Amino acid sequence: MTKKIVLAYSGGLDTSIIIPWLKENYGYEVIAMAADVGQGEELDPLNEKAIKTGASKIYIENVVEEFVTDFIWPTLKAGAVYEGKYLLGTSFARPLIAKRMVEIARAEGAEAVAHGATGKGNDQVRFELAVKALAPDLKIIAPWREWDIRSREDAIDYAQERGIPIPVTKARPYSMDRNLWHLSHEGADLEDPWNEPQNDLYMLLTPPEQAPDKPTYVELEFEKGIPVKLNGKALGPVELITELNKIAGENGVGIVDLVENRLVGMKSRGVYETPAGTVLYAAHRELELLCLDRATLHYKDQVALRYSELVYDGVWYHPLRAALDAFVDSTQQTVTGIVRMKLYKGSCSPAGSKSPYSLYNEEFSTFGRDEVYNQKDAEGFINLFGLPLKVRAIMEEKAGLRKK
């Protein structure tokens, strides 16, 4: 009996040539698995394409709602942003794809799984760590670490020799990854950080200078840190992001141009389009500023940094991330309310927020006359808070370490 392997299949250049390569070099029966994480029309031709390329069958799995509820929302609530810019769009899609790939491998009795990630990138780590965490007995094959193909141009030649249709050309060989949350662009002219992205690069949003000349306002309502309404209308998680992508994209919001530190040790340059995500992160942060106390907010910022590294590094299924989720969920119990955001030619700024759990108290913070705050109390507080500084200064003077 021919042994089976399940391939994480996108229909892109790499996975298109991996199907015949696995058959030619391993003799496997190749079962393709494509996960619908919101990439849209890209999935339409995959059924026919995978079979024509040599797969015995293909699974096209709609996991887009799970993608939002189990991966995007936890990361949003954590406020996790990698290196201050990247909203982790590719990073948290990979462990979900790997999870479904493992489930199909089990159902099909496959002995191995394969992916099309290169030996230079982060995705190889994300796929494989997820498989190791969920199914440590499965064999993993990564063709980019084995074959003689060394470039996109080599891969294109390999495909053309076998009559395999490909979605890129040598003239425009961008590597792109798309899902509901974002669209990434790498390669070609972007490999030089001095090159500004050209306007024809963008597919999800309007270049900011071409966006409307009047601002657009949106209202987002959150319940316990999760967005549930857009402009007063209750929407499901997928619908909310889809609609907000459209609104924010039309206003040029969501461009991230980043030279990032890959896990494997090198720097890479990517341009990301994340319209809805940019607005949701900004709105969520604004609501936390209203509802979280200083100590919790500041400690959560530290947690967000570690959380972003875990997600970026592909250790989604690590117990530490689950433990951090418990902390984050605790902080989000009062992060409920409405935030109004102003979108204008690529900018996204807060224009109002309110919450039944707001810790902002106008009676205490007013610059006008108040009856609740005794300003004389501040003197004793400052004396005690500054006591260590005063004691040290006295010691330094006595020890001759400083002059009066």
Can you tag this structure with a few keywords?
404 residues; alpha/beta; Rossmann fold; Argininosuccinate synthetase, chain A, domain 2; 2 domains; five-stranded parallel beta sheet; five-stranded antiparallel beta sheet; 13 helices; 19% strand
Topology:
Blueprint: E1 4-8, H1 13-26, E2 29-36, H2 46-53, E3 57-62, H3 64-78, H4 93-108, E4 112-114, H5 123-134, E5 139-141, H6 152-161, E6 175-178, E7 183-186, E8 216-223, E9 226-230, E10 233-234, H7 237-250, E11 255-261, E12 267-273, H8 275-291, H9 294-312, H10 319-331, E13 337-344, E14 347-354, H11 362-365, H12 377-385, H13 387-398
Parallel strand pairs: 1-2, 1-4, 2-3, 4-5
Antiparallel strand pairs: 6-7, 7-12, 8-9, 8-13, 9-10, 11-12, 13-14
Helix pairs in contact: 1-6, 4-5, 7-8, 9-10
Structure in words:
This protein has 404 residues and is of the alpha/beta class. It has two domains: 4-172, Rossmann fold, CATH 3.40.50.620; 182-292 and 335-354, Argininosuccinate synthetase, chain A, domain 2. Helices cover 40% and strands 19% of the residues. The chain contains 13 helices and 14 strands. A five-stranded parallel beta sheet has the order 3-2-1-4-5, with helices on both faces. β11 and β12 form a beta hairpin. α4 (93-108) crosses α5 (123-134). The N and C termini lie far apart (90 Å). The model has no long low-confidence stretch (mean pLDDT 94).
